Amino acid sequence: MGSLSTEAGCQAIREAWNCTSLEKAESFLTTQGSSAPLELENFVSNKFNPSTQHLDAINPKTGKVFARVPVSSAQEVDEAVKNATDAFKSWSKTTVAVRSKYLQKIAQLIQENHELFAVWESLDQGKTLARARVEVDRAISNFNYFSTFILHQETAARMIDGVALTYEHRSPAGVFALISPWNMPLYLLTWKIAPCLAFGCTAVAKPSEVTSMSAFLLCEVFRQSGLPSGVMNVVFGDGPTTGSALVRSPLVKGVSFTGGTATGIQIRKDTADQIYKHLSLELGGKNPTLVFDDVDLTKAVETAAMAAFENQGEICLCGSRIYVQSSIYDRFVSTFTSYVQDNYKRGGRMGAVVSLPHYRKIRSYLELAASEEAQFVIGEIPAADPQDGLWIDPVILTGVSTSSRVMREEIFGPVVTIAKFETEEEAVELANDNPNGLAAVLLTKDGARIRRVGEQIEAGLVWVNCWLVRELGTPFGGMKNSGTGREGGEYSRDVFTVVRTLHIPM
Ligand code: NAD
């Protein structure tokens, strides 16, 4: 494990950094007592700065407060943006070799503190420790990937015959606001930070106020990495106060945002008169899983269950609407139900859901389903006032109407609907009958159908006989209400750089 020098100057970092195992963290939280939660601080120009306004962070598995998260004011945001703007002048001129080394150093520091990150991510978000470990691996991959991606850039040149040569030149776009949601906090924030720094931009990041812990630990990694002052800044806070001030700042030249569709729309409105601003909006999903009657049932059930219930269904890519060809519908429902009962148990593959408001949101959809007389194949409406953590067992619903809000809106919890289809055409129609278009799962052995159906599904990402397989150069993003812009490899380069064309006469 990497050691922490006393220069950190922030008590909360020193305390949290000692919790290098689940046992240590749990023992720390027990002895800490509710009167002395960790007090997180913003990270600006390589220094931790205390804030005056705070909100509570809870451990979803117990419901107990363990930290206080700054709600940064517009003034604190402006200060961070100003520092990032100053740092941009020199950072944007560094060579890719220099930037690559910093990214590798950051990856190495996260790797050295792997379990520390996983433990706090699990305690803060409610996810299982196993799931958190996978996401820490992926965060490391984000830095490693972009650290080498930038070393091998090509550019396009064209000839105007006998007249001129033209070529494309890219430069970093400026200071970026990097805003992330609460479901995969470290993984999704680093998916923005890594390309942002790699392509020569500086950043002010704002993680979700619901899960700030891993971003807070990441600040210490940035400090230890020796990144030049002001290149990477983190302000904590909510959307209306902190996030809104950040995206509106005229000094911010781009926003890379992942979160809900309503917030994406708000950010578009708030930046509408800043036409220069790059916007990449990765938004919500309500993703279909199509199961055709030629599948290997055991494998199909495993994939559909993982797509529905991984991370308690709190992944934007989760397949929460399962459609099954009628000839295997009954067998699928019974095999799927047994598999979920055996494999998705509380404290095993199921963690707790992230917050009380989110618990209540999921609960309200289950009340709606009950009022509409859906069948609860397994699962039930959880207690209105949970006492020992925010636990919701998997819910499988049948008999939900296609027009029901349960079927149309993103619940973002451990709730899946199963319905029938007869023909391929109907399957495509049902899959596309939704305002969102982020991802889809297609389960079939028929090679021709894979392309025929796969290319008709209105989703940015279609997984065939698999789910959540990721290659970091692949364009990531959704269609319809699931967002605009793509990130990953050269698509991230488009987000974080400006391309201009030089014309050189013959
Ligand atoms: P959210 O939109 O409520 O919040 C996301 C982030 O935006 C938070 O940091 C929040 O503080 C900030 N924010 C809120 N209002 C803001 C404003 N007016 N200006 C600037 N920032 C603001 O989303 P959430 O509840 O944190 O996350 C769940 C949503 O994220 C789901 O809809 C899920 O599908 C989506 N998501 C999408 C992807 C993807 O890649 N498409 C990945 C993960 C999650």
From TrEMBL:
SUPFAM superfamilies: ALDH-like
Record Pfam families: Aldedh
UniProt cross-references to InterPro entries, sorted A to Z: Ald_DH/histidinol_DH, Ald_DH_C, Ald_DH_CS_CYS, Ald_DH_CS_GLU, Ald_DH_N, Aldehyde_DH_dom
Alphabetized GO MF terms: oxidoreductase activity, acting on the aldehyde or oxo group of donors, NAD or NADP as acceptor
Organism: Pestalotiopsis fici (strain W106-1 / CGMCC3.15140)
Designated name of the protein: Aldehyde dehydrogenase domain-containing protein
UniProtKB keywords: NAD, Oxidoreductase
Similarity annotation: Belongs to the aldehyde dehydrogenase family.
Domain Aldehyde dehydrogenase: 52-501
Active site (UniProt): E282
